[in-house]
Amino acid sequence: MTSKKEFADVGPVAPSRLGTQPVGEVAEVAEGVHQLKVPIPIPLVYVSSYLVEGDGGWTLIDTGFDYGEGKVAWEAAARSLGFSLEHDVSRIVVTHFHPDHLGAARWLQETSGAPVYMLDSEIQNSRAVWEDGDASRFVDHLVRHGMDRETTERATASMRMSLALPEKMVALEEGEELPLGPGMARVVRAPGHADHQIVLHDEGRKILFAADHILLKITPNVGLWPETAPNPLRRYEESLRSMRDLPVELVLPGHGPIFHDLQGRVDELLAHHEERLEAMRREIETVPKTSFEVSRKVFRYGLSIYERCFALAETLAHLDHLVLQGRAERIEDQELVRFRAS
Length: 342
Hints:
There is one protein chain. By secondary structure, the protein is an alpha/beta fold. The protein has a single domain (about 25-340), classed as 4-Layer Sandwich (Metallo-beta-lactamase, Chain A). Helices cover about 35% and strands about 20% of the residues. Strands 1-2-3-4-5-6-7 form a 7-stranded mixed sheet. It has a 5-stranded mixed sheet with strand order 8-9-10-11-12, with no helix packed on it. The radius of gyration is 20 Å and the shape is globular. It starts with about 25 loop residues before the first strand and ends with a strand.
């Protein structure tokens, strides 16, 4: 589950000159660290996976979808770097449960025999989401917040498809340190885009493997979904602030350009969400509206059905945050949830 995220640059932090290779290709972005732009069949076009060479074999970070073109890219990347997916992979790390990050993990595990590492709570969450098979809660959630049932059911058919999970998943703990190439990386929990997402911080080399937590050019989708814990935007902003002053000189994100100015980008993201909160509050000043109605005003028109769902969920997270701040109130009846400014 992932989205187009946001739809415009929100600040002047400059992209790096690293990682400018075409989609489907791999390039070294730090000593022993290679970025592979894995093709994915959604508007984001690719997910950035990272291949880290170590004495005991290669660590792969995030996987892309279970998708033919992505598998071809993985095989080509291994050949170009001179290692074997079948024999030389020691570990697969997945940052969160969305299918553009977890989807090909089972295939890579079956190919390599390597264990898949995820945060302990994300292993449980992945099983709950992808092995349940009942999408009715997902449909009811979007309908209750204003999307018509026919559109919701069409979107759900592709967004909540079944996903084959790896058979061997090893639990990571928050704060744990992993050997990663010539360095050590600390597991940092990074809620917001996904409740149980992690990023990896190599303090010695000042590298942050940022997953979908801190992106450049686009903003991570922070949405309120059926499985999301309350107040995701508050938890996202708290997490951003806690990371702002980490010793980091290289940010390796899950989507979009690599960049270097972590502090600057955190400040941009916080400012963006404050602007978005105010824009949404203006939409509910005179007439109570559903999240879907507000999303149609605040996000650009011409979105795919898939993207409309993410716009709704992100709008709901912001309206929920306004309620938490005392700037809006929630109005519920048997069919719909609406919001109005306080």
